[in-house]
């Protein structure tokens, strides 16, 4: 878009913003899945449609390429199919997490897989972009939704949803929305993610104050990702056994302490140590939060409720970036870090009043 089509940065930013729209309306997909199963399946046939559509789109772009109009249309469609598939998969995850009392183990596997895929695609995508061009990337991409389509068609088993369950789903949703415990949980999650972000100010500090090389910044990011994988493994085998409410206390306290460490950055090697330690523990705490999100979903309405909860998390993260950008020029880096740390610590006041299993019944 920039180098070949010569589009201004603002236009590229607007196109990127458009693709976030399907992610903002995630609860809608969950509501459709919960209330309108196809052939008594809440997710299977929706996923089949999505993966078939993504395969066809990838092949079309591989053959015919893109212009500005088709780029916008296909980006919106891809975002729609991926965001809704995310919701449908999470609906199944919530059901099995509660049914088999998995304590977040499924989510640990999910996020481990996502990070592995991110490492592969970041390196592979850069190589393809440099030597071959975007068409090949779309052609290779289409292979993976096709594999998922075959898997769903032949091997994926899903329990039937009975017709009489629809009124029960609506009843569960209404009961949950009226229950103060859900709103208290949402307030805790929103405030925790709303803590002002200092990510961009930290990048400025690394480049303009510490004069850290761009390549080393890339190494820092990869280090955090790799040790995050270790965190997911540790959660799967060990930390899922811990009491979830105590882990929520630990999440808030550790997040507070680890944020304060960013007041002391004498050189790039300290940042590398931070990324190793905080990348590992941060991944564990990430699954703790998502496990809590799955726990508070009402039975029979997992798709809608979990999508709504994660949308609250996304809204908090967006607000965090806005707050960080607003505060940084007014208070400076160190004060921003302090505000972020104590805003996180304040969330501990919610935890004594939270019920781990929602308490809707």
Structure overview:
This protein is 77% helix and 0% strand. The chain contains 15 helices and no strands. It has helices at 9-18, 21-24, 26-35, 44-64, 68-99, 105-131, 134-141, 143-154, 165-178, 180-194, 199-209, 214-237, 244-261, 268-295, 302-346. Helix 4 (44-64) runs antiparallel to helix 7 (134-141), helix 4 (44-64) packs antiparallel against helix 8 and helix 13 (244-261) crosses helix 15. The longest helix has 45 residues, at 302-346.
Summarize the structure.
By secondary structure, the protein is mostly helical.
Please give the largest β-sheet: none
| Global shape | globular
User: What's the helix-strand series?
Assistant: HHHHHHHHHHHHHHH
SS-based class: mainly alpha
Helix proportion range: over 70%
Span from first to last CA? Answer: 52 Å
Question: What is the assembly state of the chains in this entry?
Answer: single chain
| Count of separate DSSP helical elements | 15
Protein topology:
Elements: H1 9-18, H2 21-24, H3 26-35, H4 44-64, H5 68-99, H6 105-131, H7 134-141, H8 143-154, H9 165-178, H10 180-194, H11 199-209, H12 214-237, H13 244-261, H14 268-295, H15 302-346
Key terms:
361 residues; mainly alpha; 15 helices
């Amino acid at each position: 878009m920039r180098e070949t089509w010569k589009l201004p940065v603002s236009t590229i930013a607007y196109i990127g913003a458009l693709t976030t729209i399907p992610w903002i309306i995630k609860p809608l997909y969950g509501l459709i899945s919960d209330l309108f199963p196809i052939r008594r399946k809440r997710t299977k046939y929706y996923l089949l449609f999505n993966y078939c559509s993504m395969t066809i789109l990838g092949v079309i772009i591989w053959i015919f390429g893109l212009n500005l109009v088709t780029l916008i249309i296909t980006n919106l469609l891809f975002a729609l199919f991926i965001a809704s598939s995310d919701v449908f998969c999470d609906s199944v995850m919530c059901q099995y997490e509660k049914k088999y009392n998995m304590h977040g183990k499924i989510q640990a596997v999910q996020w481990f897989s996502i990070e592995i895929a991110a490492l592969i695609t970041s390196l592979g995508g850069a190589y393809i972009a440099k030597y071959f061009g975007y068409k090949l990337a779309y052609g290779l991409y289409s292979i993976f939704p096709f594999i998922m389509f075959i898997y769903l068609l032949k091997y994926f088993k899903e329990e039937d949803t009975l017709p009489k369950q629809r009124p029960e789903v609506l009843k569960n949703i209404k009961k949950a929305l009226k229950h103060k415990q859900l709103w208290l949980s949402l307030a805790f999650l929103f405030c925790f993610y709303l803590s002002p972000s200092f990510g961009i100010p930290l990048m400025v500090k690394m480049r303009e104050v510490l004069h850290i090389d761009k390549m080393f910044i890339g190494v820092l990011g990869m280090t955090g990702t790799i040790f995050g994988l270790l965190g997911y493994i540790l959660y799967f085998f060990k930390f899922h056994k811990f009491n979830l409410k105590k882990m929520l206390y630990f999440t808030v306290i550790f997040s507070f302490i680890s944020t304060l460490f960013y007041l002391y950055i004498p050189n790039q090697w300290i940042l590398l140590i931070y990324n190793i330690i905080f990348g590992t523990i941060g991944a564990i705490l990430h699954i703790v939060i998502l496990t809590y999100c799955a726990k508070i979903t009402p039975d029979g309405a997992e798709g809608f409720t979990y999508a709504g909860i994660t949308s609250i998390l996304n809204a908090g993260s967006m607000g965090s970036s806005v707050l960080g950008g607003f505060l940084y020029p007014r208070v400076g880096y160190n004060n921003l870090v302090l505000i972020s740390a104590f805003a996180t610590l304040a969330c501990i006041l919610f935890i004594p009043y939270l019920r781990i299993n929602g308490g809707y019944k």
